[in-house]
Write a structure and sequence with these properties.
With 122 residues, the protein is mainly α. It contains six helices and two strands, in the order ββαααααα. It folds into two domains: 66 residues, Helicase, Ruva Protein, domain 3 (Orthogonal Bundle); 37 residues, 30s ribosomal protein s13, domain 2. One of its GO terms (molecular function) is structural constituent of ribosome.
């Protein structure tokens, strides 16, 4: 297991796929990172040289917000919306869909969470 930015990446996967194990890095961002560093995306992670791994670590740490920082940033944004009392903040507080989806027949996922919190069976 190769460790990059505090995440253990599987050695037997292609570099393109292995980078997506890091929270905040999807396939498109992974392609962009590997293209900028001139690393072949189809290379198996264990076959990368140590210098390539060092370049990869440094590039990701400097250029992109990932893992804990990204999660904290998202939570602070949601908290800010709740604090200012805007519509999106109220929807977050009520655990309902935020982006205009209907709630009469859909939004099961959101409503089941609140239902289980309020009415737990004994």
């Amino acid at each position: 297991m190769t460790r990059i930015v505090g995440v253990d990446l599987p050695n037997n996967k292609k570099t393109l796929i292995a980078l997506t194990y890091i929270y905040g890095i999807g396939r498109n961002l992974s392609k962009t990172i590997l293209k900028n560093l001139k690393i072949d995306p189809n290379t198996i992670l264990r076959n990368l040289s140590e210098s390539d791994l060092v370049k990869l670590r440094q590039y990701i740490e400097k250029k992109h917000m990932i893992e804990g920082d990204l999660r904290r940033f998202q939570l602070l944004n949601i908290k800010r919306l709740i604090d200012i009392g805007c519509y999106k903040g109220r929807r977050h507080r009520q655990l309902l869909p935020v982006r205009g989806q209907r709630t009469r027949t859909n939004s099961r996922t959101c409503r089941i969470v609140t239902k289980n919190i309020n009415f737990s069976k004994k």
